[in-house]
Amino acid sequence: MNKKYILGGLIILIILIAFVLFNKSQQSTPITKNTQVVPVEKVIPQTKINTATTSDKTKITIATSTSYTIADIKKHNNEKDCWMAINKKVYDVTLFIASGKHNPQILKGCGLEATSMFSKIGKHNNAKVQGMMPGFVIGDLK
Ligand code: HEM
What we know:
Elements: H1 2-28, H2 40-43, E1 47-53, E2 59-65, E3 67-68, H3 70-74, E4 77-78, E5 81-86, E6 89-92, H4 94-98, E7 112-113, H5 115-120, H6 127-132, E8 137-141
Parallel strand pairs: 3-8, 5-7
Antiparallel strand pairs: 1-2, 4-5, 5-6, 6-8
This protein binds protoporphyrin IX containing FE.
């Protein structure tokens, strides 16, 4: 009789332990299992991440926009690597050129402050062009 009670108690204990362990494993499974943390500099390519430490030793991160000098832009002056400055913004149009969606005239602006060239073309003022410009921005002109 006594043995039966001990056995019954043991079974209940085992079930309880199994239940607790199962619950724990469920909790430790992150809800965000399939989400990925993407660094801000990948989402917004023109941002640079700076870290700073506040007086109470808290680490903070600040996203600042990158700026380039004319000398930086000058180094990217060809069809395979083409940057240009237009209205104080710096554009990397290398992939745009490679896509073949622009006429070869654009090459004249590679490595230069190309605002005047760009503005001379009336069509650059249309909504389609203005809408695509931000996609090529890599930073500001210093
Ligand atoms: C970020 C830089 C640039 C972008 C995103 C851009 C974009 C475009 C787009 C989308 C068009 C076609 C517009 C349309 O037909 O509706 C166009 C036309 C044109 N672009 Fe650009 N462009 C850029 C820079 C330049 C530069 C530096 C030049 C140099 C002169 C240039 C010269 C031209 C010319 C000649 C046309 C043809 C205009 C016409 O068909 O009458 N572009 N551009």
